[in-house]
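USER:
Class, as today's exercise, take the chain set out below, and explain how the chain folds.
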Amino acid sequence: MMVRSLRVPGSVALSLLVALAACGDGSTGPDASADGRTQVTLSAVSTQALGGGSGAAAAATIFEDGQGNTLELTRVALVIREIELERQFDECEDDFSNNNCEEFEIGPFLLELPLDGSVIGIGDVDVPPGFYDELEFEVHKPSDDTPDDLAFLEAHPEFKDVSIWVEGVFNGGDPFTFLQDLNEDQEIDLDPPLEVTAESPPLNLTLEFDVSVWFRDGSGILVDPVSANKGGENEDLVEENIKRSIELFEDDDRDGHRDDDD
């Protein structure tokens, strides 16, 4: 599968800042200047409908259920910030005296999920040796009360107070727009944990967003995305589906699949 890099608009001028954050006492992590760090790249992929195409022909992905309903998605975009890779057995709170966590301070930035099955790069960080078992990031609702949000909204004014934007067609009807204002941390387990050693080659972790389950009820039947907009009957259902749909796995060949499944 094709691998693409995240393109950040020049007017936003977001840079990747690697902040070495930590927790615990001084005996658990290497010094910040120690050798043996490994580059870990974070990528993202969305679930593609079975039988879907690829490349320019796959400008959309279509899902079905057993009741004859169809859902065509033509755009899936999320606003993301503050990505943190957490070391196993440690909790990262307010003690920054060590290197037990690695933090990508990016954004907010707009993550446009490709719908053709390709993998999109987010960023990379040099990680010290250890075991890492969780990735934390924030799905963020930009407002106009911080400089970073103001810079983002200058480029994307339509995303004010919007963190997730989906477009498509339900059951062949008129095009819809689904807007979500989810604004909270997402903690995604890495199972098995990622082992980083002084001899490790560059590694890749992929976040998979299973968009196929976002607009389904408990029995797997597709629901109209319009009914999940603010105040709609399926708002809470879809919000919980989105939270549960994200998976993290090691994907060193960057094909969008877990390495041990290849």
Notes: The chain has a mean pLDDT of 81. DSSP finds two helices and 14 strands in the chain.
